[in-house]
Benzoate transporter
Amino acid sequence: MTLSPWRDLSPSAVLAAVLALLVGYSGPFLIIVHAAQSAGLSAAQLGSWVWAVSIGSGVAGLWLSLRWKAPVITAWSTPGAALLLVALPGVPYPEAVGAFLAAAVIVTAIGVSGVFDRIMKVFPPALAAALLGGILFRFVAELAGAASHDAALVLPMAAAFFLGRRLFPRYALPLALALGFVIAGVQGLFGALPAWQGGAGPQFTLPAWSWTAFVNLAIPLALVALTGQFLPGMAVLASSGYRIPARSPVTTLGLMSIVTAPLGGHGVVLAAITAAICTGPEAHPDPARRYMAGVVCGVLYILLGLAGGALAALILTLPKALVAAAAGLALFGTLASSLATALGDERQREAALLTFVVAASGVTIAGLGAPLWALLAGGAVSGLLRWRWRLAPA
């Protein structure tokens, strides 16, 4: 099918991309800033870090979305950034950059090997939907928490959204978001514009090798990227009907991470939560036209990166309740369809429910996140149930 980006571009796809960027930069962006400050990085090094992960995410996401005509949303590794909060202060910066490079090489090698493709092929669709549902649950549930703290803002947004779903489904989310901006403006909820202390462009750092950094940084970074980002990211795409070989995004993003590592980038990966905003019906009723959300998201990443993070600072002025409510409402339909798919197959229902519960728990064991443990727990029960069904009399 011939690509027609201008024909396929729609306001709903643009809104989904903008909302995905708002969610990404309103929370995970702060983790990067905090990690850089904790490690004593200079303003130029912080600016280069933001430049690297933003440009890397934008270029890779833009290419993958056009290549597969699917909304392939990329981002920096959020669990990786959280890991650096603890590990980065004790590692010389050149050695940390060397660890970033080593982690990227590990991810690329796994992508080229096709291991991820084999995992996704044997993973039952019901469990993939349950995994996605468990990941999204906490973000949708934040609607209740946001409403309890900012009822005057969140409740009207929710009412407008659900009323819109009844009367004009395509415009329900834009209406809720516009109303939220108006109410936040009237109530004076927007924060003061923070001063951006980062540099304006990339700064090359020669990577240095260290076994300590390799063990304490490179291996954990690769593991959390694969289990905490690529696994749920592929599940998001699969649950929305986009059958993309895992080798392509894993290898592409691994190579992009290799390129951006000497500039301070700690890893470019598949997004999960923000991807769900762009892969569902809120982005466009026609799944074949949702890829434009990925294209727009890629372009916006590049623009933010070229701005050296100054535009990202604007996002930090938004009320947290507004961002949380908008994200929860945008993910509401995707969560509902994921649960319907997960529990629709009677033979996989118990395994899917266990997968959902473990993924929603957010548990971390031995440094590995909930998505991996949900996959292992659900897969084990699924195998056990299939064995039981084979033994059952006809």
